[in-house]
Amino acid sequence: DVYKRQVHGILNMEKVQSLLMVSVAVTDFFEKTVDKKATFYKVVVKSNENSWTLEKRFSQFDSLHKELLRTFTSLPELPPKTYFKLTSHEGLVKRKLDLEILLKSLVIRPEILNHSALRSFLELDLHNPGANPPSPKKIFELADLPLGVRDFVFVEGDNILFLALSDMKIASRIDAYITNVTFPWEKQSGSTHVTVGALLVYRYTPKEGTKEHKFDRLWVKSYPVQTNVLCWNQALKMLAIGMDDGKINCLKVSTEHKYMQYEEFCVLKTHTARVMGIALDAKKNSIFSVAEDMKFKITDLSYQEAHTDLPIGTAQLKNLEYDAENERVFILNGTGSVFIYNLAEKPPKLVKQVETGSTGILRELAIDYTSNYIFTCAMDGMISILETGKPGKDRFTKMIGNMKGADNARCIGWRPSKQEIIVGYESGQVTFWKTQDLQVACNENLYQVRCF
Q: Could you count the other beta carbons within 10 Å of the beta carbon of residue 385?
């Protein structure tokens, strides 16, 4: 019965593997003398139209498992070791089957399949040179930044880079917050504070005819709290910075002076908790924001007051995407929900709430406005695809598929020309997912790169 359940599990995994680029099978075992007599297991690997056979000892499976455990905390178990060398036929058959289950369980997880240790073990790149991922080339690096990067905006055409930086160390951050507190009986010390967050502005200048790239720092603005999110609006010539304390700092940046000058426009005391998403609209002269206080607000920039204050759900809000053309906003929360609001209604009307299948924090979404698809990524690794239908039909929005990637996904993008979903992770990985037909999302992982 145990063997039947294991074989049934293998057959189920083979159905999944039929969608993937790689399949594996441990077909046999035999004794071979290399220095000393040892048992080898025959591993058959198929990738695309190629097939090859490997001979692996149990100790090599053990080394692979240990190496993967350094990156992935949740792995299928390695068959148990024995104190004495395994010699019985029944015991070897059982181990062969267990090793096959292990390998099949590994290759159906895209983030593991693309790990260098497993690719080396299966000799994927050696036997599949045409399938090697393109090698990214670093052309420039902004090194030795004083704080960690929380968000950035690159203004194309003008080649301006806005960077939101924050102190990522909890201990030093708490110490700075305490130092920055001014009690009622203390005299105000002007703008002096311990820096916890900062805004850095650079101009990017490629040198024509050379491989050299140059970033010149234009100016810096420091803050006594963490900076969290940025939003730039070219028509307003305004940069909005969402802060850790719920405030939004709005700066007018002079494009006439090549971004060299700025002036304080306002500091909006909009939220009571960390601001997680911002959008600016020049026609409405308004700023849209969500925060961990579970509020969605619309603030008039002329009066600097919120005229819309909507509590949304019972979980912290984590991001928003504003569709100005169709007067709607998409809001993500910390328990896997997407909220779609119609902004043409006064107050904004909730059109649809969709559960993505994730129970974790939704970090970001990308929208294909042509095909009307939404892509979300979550901290638990769930990547979800929703179909919205045409604008005005948002109430018919539905889930059409999801895939499980690595944990701690932070950002997502959609590349319609290649039908690829691009996901960035906290670990530094960037994974590219191929979708064959968005009516049935296919979890085919193309490749991933690691950014340093």
A: 23
* 122 pLDDT tier (thresholds 50, 70, 90): very high
Helix and strand totals (H; E) in the chain: 7, 27
The continuous run of DSSP H or E covering 55 comes out as strand 50-57
Unique residue bearing structure tokens 């609209």: 281
CB atoms within 10 A of CB 1: 5
Using an 8 Å Cβ cutoff, are 445 and 433 in contact? yes
pLDDT for 156: 86
Report whether 64 contacts 78 (CB < 8 A).
Answer: no
Q: Tell me the C-alpha distance between 421 and 160, whole Å.
A: 26
Query: In the 8-state DSSP scheme, what is residue 194?
Result: -
Over residues 176-189, the mean pLDDT reads 50
Let me know: does 231 contact 218? Beta carbons within 8 Å.
no
**Which tokens hold the place of 276?**
């997680």
Question: 192-212 b/e with 16+ CB inside 10 Å = b?
Answer: eeebbbbbbbbbbeeeeeeee
Q: What is the C-alpha separation between 452 and 450, in angstroms, rounded? A: 7
Q: For residue 20, with 0-12 CB atoms within 10 Å meaning exposed, 13-18 middle and 19 or more buried, which class applies?
A: middle
| Cα 191 from Cα 206, distance rounded (Å) | 36
Strand partners for 250: 240, 266
Contact, 290 vs 319, CB < 8 A?
A: yes
Check: CB of residue 291 under 8 Å from CB of residue 274: yes
pTM given for the model: 0.66
The continuous run of DSSP H or E covering 321 comes out as strand 317-323
- Per-residue pLDDT of 201-216, as tens digits, reads 999 887 666 666 788 9
- Bond preceding residue 347 cis, omega within 30 of 0: yes
- Cα–Cα dist 106/108, whole Å: 6
